[in-house]
Amino acid sequence: MTMPPVPRPVPERAFARNLRMGGVASGILGATLGSVASTMLRGQRPDLAQAVLTPANALRLAGGLAHLRGAAMKLGQMLSLENGLALPPELTAILGQLQASAPAMPPAQLKSVLTAEWGAGWQKKLARFEVRPIAAASIGQVHRAWLKDGRALAIKVQFPGIASSIDSDIATLGRLLRMPGVLPKGLDITPLMTEARAQLHEEADYFREARALQAFGQTLSDDPQFLVPQVHGDLSTGRILAMDFIESAPIDSAISAPQAVRNQLAGDLISLVLRELFALGQMQTDPNFANYRLAPDGRIVLLDFGATRSIAPATAERYRQLLRAFLATDQAQVWAQMAALGYFRPDQPEDRKALIVALAIKASAPLRQDAAYEFANATLIEDLAREGQALGAAREFWHVPPADLLFLHRKIGGMYLLAQRLGAEIRLRPLLEPWAKAR
């Protein structure tokens, strides 16, 4: 989470939220028809996709989602992080304009939420509560508070109406995405929308997040690299999560630290991802930089466990086999495991599957090299984007992978970008080989 923009009321009722998105849809449709008409008047054949996916329409869509916060904004962020194997690059660019931060709710709306959750006179429970939030995102905002014994707390407060609006928001956003020209004909995003709806309901359940926070805290309690805030159950509810406030600095403040320190930080976080995937059966899937901070003693503070997902043992074993195939450059096994995990459809052309596999093997090259991988000087993402342009050209063969893949890629991509931001130099193969072995 980052510092929020100027406070704006959160629309609480479905009617108000649908009206807002209806206005966005009307604006997009009007601009699109105008562009099509202008093209036809010039004697040219209009490209509907190009007419819809314009910079102006991008601002309309991103602005509407940011105003609503909640499911609409969260799903937009999720879709913007897919890797180009599924959605049109123009659409991911549009959704990519959604940032992790959102406008905070005004003090009066905040007070109504606190009173509804904590009861009248809730101020007596605390020595001090700061009305100005220290952060705000798609589902809630965070405030500092102090108990009467002097302990500092971080109070995460959910925006009103978010939980009850998830289903209608997802349906509304689905209708927007299905506007002619936005998605290729025949591309079915229903499974992704269904999975996103379930995930968002889980994220809006702060009791569930508290349990995940406690579970990670217990698992990592003896780990010298990480620090997890403790939950204050007496002040936590379904819409409020109270936890220790830990003095810390943004993790990217370490970019001026010695190379060894930066390498250690990035290496620890990459190792944690592997541990989550292959050992814990639970993964925090939101790689926002703000969820990783540095305590004064050098430990990494882990925050925001709302996006924690369970990983079935069978799924983890599939990824283990895929990792083993990547390390061995075994193209046949890479193909087989990617097919089993859902990277491509059975009915997709063989040459398209081959291109996806080739790109995956190229992307995994840093895992195989013996020398340290220099993230700061890497051009892997740019190279893959350039070589993968052929994937985006065949609109009729776009495919939305299973949500689990998108969430995992979201986490891995976030770790890559964080390691790049830190300028880390890491020998990745020694970190990965122990996890590739059969269990």
Shape: globular
How many structural domains in the coordinates?
Answer: 2
Which value, in Å, is the CA radius of gyration?
23 Å
β-strand amount: 5-15%
Count helical runs. Answer: 18
Topology, number of strands: 13
Q: Would you tell me the overall average pLDDT? A: 79
What are the segments in which pLDDT stays under 50 over at least 5 consecutive residues? 28-53, 81-86, 393-397
Straight-line N-to-C gap: 37 Å
Proportion of residues in helical segments: 40-55%
Question: Which keywords apply here?
Answer:
52% helix; alpha+beta; single chain; 18 helices; 439 residues
Structure description:
This protein has helices at 14-41, 48-52, 55-68, 70-80, 89-95, 107-118, 162-177, 190-203, 206-219, 259-280, 313-328, 331-341, 350-363, 365-368, 380-387, 389-393, 403-422, 428-436, and strands at residues 128-129, 135-136, 140-146, 152-158, 226-227, 240-244, 249-250, 282-284, 292-294, 300-302, 308-310, 373-374, 425-426. With 439 residues, the protein is α+β, with helices and mostly antiparallel strands. The chain folds into two domains: 14-104 and 161-203, no CATH class; 250-439, no CATH class. Residues 28-53, 81-86 and 393-397 have low confidence and may be disordered.
